[in-house]
Amino acid sequence: MAMLRVENLEVFYGVIRAIKGVSFEVNEGEVIALIGANGAGKTTILHTITGLIQPHAGKIEFEGHDLVKTPAYKIVQMGMAHVPEGRRIFQQLTVLENLRLGAFTRKSNSEIQASLKRVYRSFPRLEERKNQVAGTLSGGEQQMLAMGRALMSDPKIILMDEPSKGISPLIVMEIFNMIREISSGGTTVLLVEQNAKKALEISNRAYVLETGKIALEGNAEELMNNENVKKAYLGE
């Protein structure tokens, strides 16, 4: 059974039908990419999965549980974490305070300490800057902090929205290596990304979204070699 299943999802903004019958699934341990142009509906899908937007129709199931009627805070408790576009860190708080806020669902201090160790192992730079005010970090470091904060809840699946946006090319490579590492540590990843080439390089499978519909789906390697994908998204 798929860990996350989306079936015939319909989302409206007022009278505009933004998502048009989208279906896809994510199996445990996979890295799945949702790629597509700006405005294709990728972020809307993530917001609907995490309970920030109510769908007009369709089903969303996480480990067999219906998410459509589940409040957003309960979805986090079930083991889903969301790294939003634009990072949304608490600028005035320190790195460590931001990370601790990511662990609000954890019960014991020992669990929180174990998560902190894991985050520092994946992102050594965060440990070096743990007492620094988050707003003074570079864009790439803020992205690492947003990812680290999501990992603090020890999620089964992590949803990432445009992690490479607004980051220097050198750091982009580092961020994608870290996503790979998060995956090899046992966390399932659903990745929304405009940098289709990078996303396909680290994914098992991918779905191509065009104006609210899935236009193509398949093995990431197959899509890398697909002529239409090459032309439209890989700049070839």
Give the count of helical stretches.
Answer: 10
Shape verdict: globular
Name the CATH architecture of the domain at 1-79 and 194-236: 3-Layer(aba) Sandwich
What is the helix fraction of residues, given as a range? 25-40%
The portion of residues forming beta strands comes to 25-35%
Count of extended strands: 10
| Main sheet summary | 6 strands, mixed
Describe the protein's architecture and organization.
By secondary structure, the protein is an alpha/beta fold. It has a domain at 1-79 and 194-236: P-loop containing nucleotide triphosphate hydrolases (Rossmann fold, 3-Layer(aba) Sandwich), CATH 3.40.50. It is built from ten helices and ten strands. A six-stranded mixed sheet has the order 6-7-8-3-9-10, with helices on both faces. The chain has a four-stranded antiparallel sheet with strand order 2-1-4-5, with helices on one face. It is globular, with a radius of gyration of 17 Å. 40% of the residues are buried.
